[in-house]
Amino acid sequence: MAAFETHYTLPLPKFDEPVRLLVVVAPYYKDIADNLIAGARAVAEEAGAEVDIVEVPGALEIPTAITLAQGMADYHGFVALGCVIRGETTHYDTVCNDSSRGLTLMGLQGVCIGNGILTVENREQAVVRADPAGQNKGGGAAAAALHLVALSRKWGRVEKGIGFRVPASGKDRT
């Protein structure tokens, strides 16, 4: 069972300049969402990042909210949090696949996103994964976003809304 596996976790990156993260959460299962937020906030604060939080109605709205914020606000990275528990219909598959696809497409365009949307079979699985003292998937999503912010700063910056790399020095690197 995966819960008993030992995993390597990268140390959190260090930053010379401030980092602003936006946590976008779908609080459909409020207790689970609150635990995901607590984990994300603790990891972000440990790395010295500032955190803002916004709520959206459901997991399908998370990619849209991040797209809006990426184009209209001043954030370096984003953390997507929520929980989708399998039900009796295929709606679960649509929500899981489409929210993940939206986040992945933004990531491929250079947006620094940590995906902490839980996709589980039952509430018990969600509770274990969301627990900041347990699997801490909210904290893991914040750490992922922070690592991507660090990489984007290492390799240059992405001009907001353009999606291509501009070298930090302003000169082309060859």
Automatic annotation (TrEMBL):
**Keywords in UniProt for this one?**
Riboflavin biosynthesis, Transferase
In short, the EC number is 2.5.1.78
Which Gene3D superfamilies does this chain map to?
Lumazine/riboflavin synthase (3.40.50.960)
Entry superkingdom: Bacteria
Q: Which Pfam families match?
A: DMRL_synthase
Catalytic residues at 91
Does the entry feature the keyword Disulfide bond, yes or no? Answer: no
Q: Where does 5-amino-6-(D-ribitylamino)uracil bind?
A: 28, 59-61, 83-85, 115
**Catalytic reaction equation(s):** (2S)-2-hydroxy-3-oxobutyl phosphate + 5-amino-6-(D-ribitylamino)uracil = 6,7-dimethyl-8-(1-D-ribityl)lumazine + phosphate + 2 H2O + H(+)
Q: Where are the transmembrane segments?
A: none
tRNA processing as UniProt keyword: no
The GO terms this record gives for MF are: 6,7-dimethyl-8-ribityllumazine synthase activity
Q: Which residues bind (2S)-2-hydroxy-3-oxobutyl phosphate?
A: 88-89, 129
Q: In which pathway does it act?
A: Cofactor biosynthesis; riboflavin biosynthesis; riboflavin from 2-hydroxy-3-oxobutyl phosphate and 5-amino-6-(D-ribitylamino)uracil: step 1/2
Q: What does this protein do?
A: Catalyzes the formation of 6,7-dimethyl-8-ribityllumazine by condensation of 5-amino-6-(D-ribitylamino)uracil with 3,4-dihydroxy-2-butanone 4-phosphate. This is the penultimate step in the biosynthesis of riboflavin.
Query: What family does the entry list?
Result: Belongs to the DMRL synthase family.
Q: What is this protein called?
A: 6,7-dimethyl-8-ribityllumazine synthase
Biological source species: Halodurantibacterium flavum
Q: Which gene encodes it?
A: ribH
